[in-house]
């Protein structure tokens, strides 16, 4: 039996422990430990994915206890993919954010890295586990560490944002826990596969219905589905950059993963779409989330806030897609988990770079940024195009599947919302680009070429010196931006080799 | 017909893309940078040219880059129509690069590295669109082209270009996301494929009303074609430096728009399918209105480039009209016009730019007597103008000839009337410019009678393109053969 599924979770957990101990002695020792443990976790996750693709799902019994009594980790195409995503992003972000952490929490970098690792432990655990109660425990590990991290952020408002998040987060978790309680009462089991096998026999049960609704609402609160999103913008905007960059792409996407897992692997399509026929209402909720998120994003004056509302908008894509009730919609939703994580990661990396140099990122602060930070802006532009859905970036291809799914389900309002949100995002990003490109108003002619003027150290923009973010951040952003295009070009492969085998 | 698999189409797209980092890194050495532009442009042209014999032998070249979904891969297919467009665009890229040197250095413009880099990206996207094997790939390059040209249109970075850039994107991106994307997904939803084929992809799944809506979504959605009422981005885009207006807004960008419409008419719907529903007349009607209205507006424009822009809007609709005639000669004429108009109009833009570089003037009312100061430029202007009007001895005559024959073939007298009226209007807005340049009293003349042309790098390109326009009258065969072969593929007759 290979132990890689466990290593993905254990490596950052042990890393957190060692880093915590090391922090007593020397703060600086925590960073390499964190880096190494996430590197190991990422390698193990890649190994899992390859194994799953070659020989099918892996079943792993924690500490050798057989399910349904023991906790089972079950790695199939879906979570192998998401695990690679989480560990990869967590690792890359650690590389990118070293200087940001020094800048923002210089005296507490040790505790930052410990909490960071615990946060990742929670995420990978949530994704790996095949046990409903274990899932709850790991969600709480994730949430508790993110409450702490957000409070580390903005001096004035970080604590308030964190408190808000705690209130709503606890409510969400309680909903989910209550739902799991009902499932346990009804089925006597907490193992997902075990519960899934019993559900077809009890579809008429009202206990099961209540359990389902409680679980799903709990997850919706945690993923910030409009109008349950109010905690998210402040929490993410006031968190320290190094943490915002990982919580924004991953936290909500992992909760979408949990929703998909509950729908596909626990309650089942037949129960949700045939017995309960819940599709229509939820797709409408997705539609409203998309439009509301987009419109509110459009009205924001701060770049960070704007990005957080884009997340609210994107959540609508995935919820709507998953609830269309057909394979195309679900394919689109799952593909969008991957794509959106990468896109938002790229966006927040870019925004983090800007914050590092500019401190404040109201849109009016971004004047002349194309000249000042060309590499950061390059990455930002690619990420923005991906959000808008310009091919060949990955955002286009998940949108493609989602719209096809909407056509097949006859949910034309959802298809229209997806198109409108593309347009809204185009307006929104070009509003930002305009400021970065046109202001301060250039004198137009007369700068001339550097040729013959004797300045050969700068590029052509003799007037503006390039002031880029730390090299590691810039390179990471470049890698992630290129990955947006590569993943886009290989969407067909991802769908054929990973998502479709999982759904069938 | 044989299908030959070869990586050449991909290479032709990539070569100017791969040179971009080199261009950026040599920003301090303009001559080296421009050298690389020429190297890439020449390789690109030669790659396209090397595929020509294969196409003329009646074969096609295919290459699949990646598989996305069945019937909708990212794939290239070189057919006669694509070949013709790619040939024109890649040849004119080299000429325009030369012109850019004269123009940009002549005016001491800022941001020249940014300019040549995005220019290279734009031409890559153009060739990609020309060689697209299916609608998805075409859409991909269409969008890349829209975004790559934004920094070129707004090159001056002043308040005026900001407003124009906004309008440019609103029209181009708004229609492609709002109309083409849903139309494309609708097609895929119905048929499960987006592959271009002469017979069309529909086999009875579309009723006439649905087909009409779908067709209109495409015709208006590809707003780069400048069909009214989605045309006003083109005059706005004239704030760009002239090389951009010349290559992109007379050849590459706008022709990608009409090319896409022709592709949809011939490859997605299929000529036969449209004839059976008599939908050609709908598109032809829309195109006719655009032709007449834009030509009339052009009459009243005093800014040289704006007049050319309105002229372009009209001429683009000739191509759409030709395709919409759905008759062999008409479609041939439409396709030929892609090439003929390109050489004629780029000459005119080069002339406008050359005058601006030499004298700083951009209004026609300030150009009285310019013929004595810039005789070479104004002679080239005459040839270009004749080609646009459609008079011998220029290439424009050939394409207009076929268009007129097409209307007769289809017995469409109204369209014949539209074409002839438009020719008169074209003459009415071009000929006075030439007349006023040479025929004026010494008191009226605004220039000294001393020859003082624009820099050589500006003049040589416009002479070249004027000569080509002239030669194409006597030797239209390469394009004519390609167009005839393409039509054979679409109609099978």
SSE layout:
The complex is a heterodimer of chains A (504) and B (493).
Chain A: H1 4-25, H2 30-55, E1 58-61, E2 72-75, H3 77-96, H4 98-104, H5 109-128, H6 132-151, H7 158-187, H8 192-198, H9 206-223, H10 232-238, H11 241-267, H12 269-275, H13 279-298, H14 303-322, H15 327-358, H16 369-372, H17 374-388, H18 394-409, H19 412-438, H20 471-489, H21 491-503
Antiparallel strand pairs in A: 1-2
Chain B: E1 3-5, H1 8-18, H2 20-25, H3 30-56, E2 60-69, E3 72-78, H4 80-106, H5 112-130, H6 135-153, H7 159-191, H8 208-221, H9 233-236, H10 242-269, H11 271-277, H12 280-299, H13 304-324, H14 328-359, H15 370-373, H16 375-389, H17 395-409, H18 413-438, H19 456-474, H20 477-491
Parallel strand pairs in B: 1-2
Antiparallel strand pairs in B: 2-3
What are the key terms here?
heterodimer, A: 504 residues, 2 domains, 21 helices, 2 strands, 75% helix, B: 493 residues, mainly alpha, three-stranded mixed beta sheet, 4% strand
Characterization of the model:
- The complex is a heterodimer of chains A (504) and B (493).
- Chain A contains 21 helices and two strands.
- By secondary structure, chain A is an all-alpha fold.
- Chain A folds into two domains: 1-270, no CATH class; 278-443 and 459-504, no CATH class.
- Chain A has a two-stranded antiparallel ribbon.
- The longest helix of chain A has 32 residues, at 327-358.
- Chain A starts with a helix and ends with a helix.
- Mean pLDDT of chain A is 88; it is low at 441-462.
- With 493 residues, chain B is mainly alpha-helical.
- Chain B has two domains: 1-278, no CATH class; 281-493, no CATH class.
- Chain B has a three-stranded mixed sheet with strand order 1-2-3.
- The longest helix of chain B is centred in the middle third of the chain and has 33 residues, at 159-191.
- The mean pLDDT of chain B is 89.
- Chains A and B meet through α18, α19 and α21 of A and β2, α5, α6 and α7 of B.
């Amino acid at each position: 039996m290979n132990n890689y599924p466990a290593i993905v979770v254990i490596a950052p957990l042990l890393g957190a422990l060692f880093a915590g101990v090391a922090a007593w002695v020397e703060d600086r020792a925590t960073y390499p430990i964190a880096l190494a443990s996430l590197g190991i976790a990422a390698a193990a996750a890649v190994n899992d994915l390859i194994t799953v693709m070659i020989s099918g799902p892996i079943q792993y019994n924690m500490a050798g206890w057989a399910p349904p009594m023991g906790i089972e980790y079950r790695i199939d195409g879906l979570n192998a993919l998401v695990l690679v995503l989480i560990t990869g992003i967590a690792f890359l972000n650690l590389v990118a954010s070293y200087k940001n952490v020094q800048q923002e929490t210089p005296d507490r970098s040790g505790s930052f890295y410990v909490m960071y690792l615990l946060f990742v432990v929670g995420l990978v655990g949530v994704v790996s586990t095949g046990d409903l109660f274990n899932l709850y425990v790991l969600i709480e590990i994730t949430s508790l560490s993110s409450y702490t991290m957000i409070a580390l952020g903005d001096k004035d408002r970080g604590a308030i944002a964190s408190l808000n998040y705690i209130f709503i987060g606890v409510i969400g978790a309680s909903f989910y826990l209550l739902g799991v309680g009902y499932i346990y009462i009804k089925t006597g089991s907490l193992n997902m596969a075990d519960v899934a096998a019993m559900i077809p026999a009890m579809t008429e049960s009202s206990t099961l219905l209540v359990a389902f609704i409680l679980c799903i609402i709990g997850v919706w609160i945690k993923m910030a589905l409009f109008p349950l999103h109010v905690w998210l913008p402040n929490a993410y905007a006031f968190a320290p950059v190094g943490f915002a960059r990982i919580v924004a792409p991953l936290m909500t996407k992992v909760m979408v993963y949990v929703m998909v897992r509950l729908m596909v692997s626990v309650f089942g399509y037949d129960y949700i779409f045939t017995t309960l026929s819940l599709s229509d209402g939820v797709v409408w909720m997705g539609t409203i989330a998309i439009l509301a998120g987009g419109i509110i994003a459009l009205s924001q004056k701060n770049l960070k806030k704007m990005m957080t509302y884009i997340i609210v908008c994107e959540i609508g894509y995935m919820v709507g897609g998953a609830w269309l009730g057909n394979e195309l919609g679900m394919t689109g939703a799952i593909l969008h988990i991957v794509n959106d994580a990468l896109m938002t990661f790229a966006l927040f990396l870019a925004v983090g770079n800007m914050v590092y140099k500019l401190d404040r990122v109201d849109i009016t602060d971004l004047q002349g940024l194309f000249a000042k930070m060309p590499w950061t802006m390059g990455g930002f532009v690619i990420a923005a195009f991906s959000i808008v859905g310009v091919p060949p970036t990955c955002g286009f291809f998940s949108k493609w599947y989602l719209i096809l799914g909407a056509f097949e389900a006859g949910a034309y309002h959802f298809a229209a919302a997806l198109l409108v949100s593309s347009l809204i995002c185009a307006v929104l990003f070009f509003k930002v680009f305009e400021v970065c490109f046109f202001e301060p108003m250039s004198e137009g002619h007369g700068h001339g070429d550097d040729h013959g003027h004797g300045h050969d150290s700068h590029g052509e923009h003799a007037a503006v010196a390039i002031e880029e973010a730390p090299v590691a951040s810039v390179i990471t952003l470049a890698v992630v931006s290129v990955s947006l295009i590569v993943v886009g070009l290989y969407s067909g492969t991802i769908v054929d080799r990973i998502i479709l085998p999982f759904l069938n | 017909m044989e299908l030959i698999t070869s990586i050449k189409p991909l290479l032709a797209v990539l070569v100017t893309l791969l040179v971009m980092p080199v261009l950026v890194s040599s920003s301090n050495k303009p001559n080296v940078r421009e050298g690389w532009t020429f190297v890439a442009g020449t390789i690109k042209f030669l790659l396209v040219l090397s595929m020509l014999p294969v196409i003329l032998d009646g074969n096609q070249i295919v290459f699949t880059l990646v598989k996305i979904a069945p019937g909708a891969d990212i794939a290239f297919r070189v057919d006669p129509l694509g070949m013709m467009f790619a040939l024109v665009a890649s040849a004119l890229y080299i000429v325009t690069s030369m012109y850019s040197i004269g123009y940009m250095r002549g005016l001491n413009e800022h941001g020249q590295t940014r300019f040549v880099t995005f220019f290279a990206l734009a031409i890559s996207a153009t060739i990609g669109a020309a060689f697209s094997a299916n609608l998805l790939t075409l859409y991909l390059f269409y969008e890349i082209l829209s975004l790559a040209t934004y920094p070129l249109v707004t090159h001056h970075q002043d308040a005026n270009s900001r407003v124009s850039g906004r309008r440019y994107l609103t029209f181009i991106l708004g229609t492609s996301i709002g109309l083409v994307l849903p139309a494309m997904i609708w097609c895929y939803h119905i048929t499960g494929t987006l592959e271009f084929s002469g017979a069309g992809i529909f086999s009875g799944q579309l009723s006439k009303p649905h087909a009409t809506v779908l067709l209109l979504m495409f015709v208006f959605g590809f707003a780069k074609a400048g069909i009214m009422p989605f045309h006003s981005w083109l005059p706005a885009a004239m704030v760009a430096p002239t090389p951009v207006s010349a290559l992109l807004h007379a050849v590459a960008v706008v022709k990608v728009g009409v090319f896409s419409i022709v592709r949809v008419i011939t490859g997605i719907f299929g000529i036969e399918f449209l004839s059976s529903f008599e939908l050609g007349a709908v598109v032809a009607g829309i195109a006719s209105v655009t032709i007449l209205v834009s030509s009339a507006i052009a009459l009243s424009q005093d800014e040289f480039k704006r007049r050319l822009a309105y002229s372009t809007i009209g001429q683009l609709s000739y191509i759409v009209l030709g395709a919409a005639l759905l008759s062999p000669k008409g479609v041939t004429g439409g396709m030929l016009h892609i090439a003929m108009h390109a050489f004629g109009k780029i000459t005119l833009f080069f002339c406008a730019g050359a005058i601006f570089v030499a004298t700083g003037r951009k209004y026609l009312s300030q150009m009285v007597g310019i013929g004595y100061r810039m005789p070479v430029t104004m002679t080239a202007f005459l040839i270009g103008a004749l080609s646009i009007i459609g008079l011998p001895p220029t290439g424009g005559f050939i394409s207009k000839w076929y268009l007129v024959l097409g209307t007769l073939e289809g017995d469409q007298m109204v369209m014949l009337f539209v074409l002839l009226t438009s020719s008169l209007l074209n003459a009415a807005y071009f000929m006075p410019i030439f007349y006023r340049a040479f025929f004026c009293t010494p008191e009226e003349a605004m220039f000294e009678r001393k020859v003082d042309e624009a820099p050589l790098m500006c003049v040589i390109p416009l002479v070249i393109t004027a000569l080509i326009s002239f030669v194409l009258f006597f030797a239209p065969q390469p394009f004519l053969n390609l167009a005839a072969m393409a039509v054979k593929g679409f109609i099978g007759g």
